[in-house]
């Protein structure tokens, strides 16, 4: 024992460290690595969240929200309208307001006011008599009148009657010694009849209106049908292959042409009757009553003694 050297404490510590520290270092290294990985994942997740948040914020800044802009602008404009109107009214020479584009979602313009003659019910519903009248078929009337009058002078009275009719845009279609056939525009029929009645003593008058609406429509329908058949026959004539077929089609075309001309003449005549009313004026000459030139015969002889005969002759002496 005396020959053994004493062991130094530092060496003992180093030996102990060699046996203990490596396992501890390995265990600490594993723990340190796990902690490092966990912390790295946390940092990476935080970075991703921050990047996503920054991207959303930039997108929101790039596309601003205009959801309330239109309504706010419309309200602001409407609230400013009365002041602008009052300012324009106060000026003596107002300026024309500048055109402003209508925003999306703005209210549509108000409907125009009701036309004159439209009736409005208590509930707000309105009915237009003019629309109902337009829906009804128009009646086509032909007015005729006959007037008999007693006059003293025929020729001057006839001239006066012609002047009345010509002033109203009419004319005389027939004239005889004691009769006139006058044509006046239909709208002046009553006015002409009243004016003519003042030319003499009317002994008889009569006027009437004939409804020719159905006849007028029937003539127009027949004319339209005849024109369509004429057009088809003309097309057939162009495709005719033989002389016989050509002659037959030409005969039909000639008949249709004559029928079309007759229908047109009837329509024209009826249109003239509708446009111009007819007034027949019959004049009966009235003769002047002449007093007898003989002496006045008094019923009682004693009246002659009173001088009545001389009084009756007094007007003749003053002529």
From TrEMBL:
Alphabetized InterPro entries for the sequence = DUF4349
Q: Which Pfam families match?
A: DUF4349 (PF14257)
User: Coiled-coil regions in this chain?
Assistant: 246-280
Q: Does the keyword Protease apply?
A: no
Bilayer-crossing residues are: none
Q: Where is this region: Disordered?
A: 83-136
Tagged with keyword Coiled coil: yes
Q: Where is the composition biased (Low complexity)?
A: 90-108, 115-131
Q: Which domain of life is it from?
A: Bacteria
Q: Which residue intervals define the domain DUF4349 in the entry?
A: 139-290
Protein keywords = Coiled coil
What's the protein here called? Answer: DUF4349 domain-containing protein
Q: Which organism is it from?
A: Lujinxingia sediminis
Q: What is the lineage of its organism?
A: Bacteria, Deltaproteobacteria, Bradymonadales, Lujinxingiaceae, Lujinxingia
């Amino acid at each position: 024992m005396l020959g053994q050297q004493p062991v130094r404490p530092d060496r003992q510590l180093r030996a102990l460290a060699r046996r203990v520290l490596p396992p501890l270092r390995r265990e600490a290294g594993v723990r340190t690595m796990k902690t490092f990985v966990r912390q790295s994942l946390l940092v990476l997740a935080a970075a991703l969240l921050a990047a996503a948040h920054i991207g959303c914020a930039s997108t929101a800044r790039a596309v601003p929200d205009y959801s309330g802009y239109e309504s706010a602008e419309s309200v602001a404009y409407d609230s400013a309208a009365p002041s602008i109107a009052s300012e324009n009214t106060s000026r003596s020479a107002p300026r024309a307001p500048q055109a402003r584009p209508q925003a999306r979602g703005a209210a549509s313009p108000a409907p125009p006011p009701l036309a004159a003659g439209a009736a409005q019910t208590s509930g707000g519903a309105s009915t237009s008599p003019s629309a109902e009248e337009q829906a009804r078929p128009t009646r086509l009337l032909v007015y005729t009148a006959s007037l008999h009058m007693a006059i003293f002078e025929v020729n001057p009275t006839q001239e006066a009657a012609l002047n009345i009719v010509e002033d109203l845009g009419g004319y005389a279609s027939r004239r005889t010694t004691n009769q006139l056939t006058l044509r006046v525009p239909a709208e002046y029929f009553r006015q002409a009849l009243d004016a003519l009645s003042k030319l003499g003593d009317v002994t008889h008058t009569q006027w009437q209106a004939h409804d020719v609406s159905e006849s007028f429509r029937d003539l127009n329908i027949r004319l339209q049908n005849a024109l369509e058949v004429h057009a088809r026959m003309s097309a057939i004539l162009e495709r005719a292959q033989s002389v016989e077929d050509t002659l037959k089609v030409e005969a039909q075309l000639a008949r249709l042409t004559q029928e079309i001309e007759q229908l047109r003449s009837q329509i024209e005549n009826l249109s003239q009757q509708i446009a111009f009313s007819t007034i027949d004026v019959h004049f009966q000459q009235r003769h002047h009553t002449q007093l007898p030139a003989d002496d006045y015969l008094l019923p009682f002889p004693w009246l002659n003694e009173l001088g009545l005969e001389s009084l009756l002759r007094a007007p003749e002496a003053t002529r």
